[in-house]
Amino acid sequence: SHFWAVVPAAGIGSRMQTETPKQYLNLAGKTVLSRSLGKLLAVPFIERIMVALSPNDAVWPSLPEASESRISTVAGGSERADSVLAALKALDSYAAPDDWVLVHDAARPCVQSAAISRMLITLADHPVGGIMATPIADTVKQVDAEQGIAATLDRSRLWAAQTPQLFRYGLLVAALEKALDAGVTVTDEASAVEWAGHTPKLFSGSRTNLKITVPEDLHLAELILAAEGE
Ligand code: C5P
């Protein structure tokens, strides 16, 4: 089967408190989006990458990746899941139901290409797919409305979900459509796939695959890339 990729990059990055959406902030001389796409382009299995962009996006045409033959773009939607679904549908003329599609956030530029390859190989025979994740290091508290601690969760069974998330193409489209129709909150692909009754696998990733969410994350990302010689 074939491997395709989807990159949601249509967010406005409200938590960054900057004019520029986070995918276009500068990270060691390139945009965050360029860095994320570079990691995917370095995985030769991936045949095409569909990038979901905001309809108001004026930056994309100036990126070097805009002229890359393995990359196409499509207009994203109002929530991340809408952007992912729009990009999946734009792959419809390429992808067969049993093909693999890898969804990777534009905001995770520190993922390692070698880790992506290992994940594709490890999950290759799985009927559903799986996600990159790391065990939670912190003890996690559940709070009440007044920020009082209501419960301490069992850390030994908690993992933090990252992207990439890899699923069979047909299964993922069906699960996302069903979940969005039902009004379920879908913050990652796995949550829709779980909700549809499947059991995705966890693939143990690295804590350095951080998501750029608040301004200080850019400094951490710069250190991580420098340590990896980029
Ligand atoms: O805001 P958050 O960190 O969850 O965004 C994750 C990714 O989803 C980002 O790469 C962002 O650009 C993308 N996104 C999107 N369409 C939206 C909202 C977020 O493609 N409507």
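^ cytidine-5'-monophosphate complex. The chain has a mean pLDDT of 96. The two ends are 32 Å apart (CA to CA).
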